[in-house]
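The instructor's notes for this session suggest beginning with a concrete chain rather than abstract definitions. Hand out the sequence below and ask the class to guess, before any prediction is shown, which regions might be ordered.
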Amino acid sequence: MHITYRPKGVCSRLMEIDVENGRIEKVEVTGGCSGNLSGISRLLVGMTVEEAIARMEGIRCGLKPTSCPDQLAKALKNCI
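After discussion, reveal the predicted structure:
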């Protein structure tokens, strides 16, 4: 399954995620903090969708009510 998600309330502009058999195969994020998001993307590969959501959901960025990891969790909820 390929997910294309436009995050809201964060610096990143586009998230593309490939999921196969409940596991994350690939994550690409356009915009945002390049180094941090590249690291997060690599860490997610091989993780189950449920575990990734549990780890990232609710994370905030400074005073913002959301963050790029939180938005990734919202995108992944489209898989379950």
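Then share the key points. Helices lie at 34-44, 49-56, 68-76. The chain has a mean pLDDT of 96.
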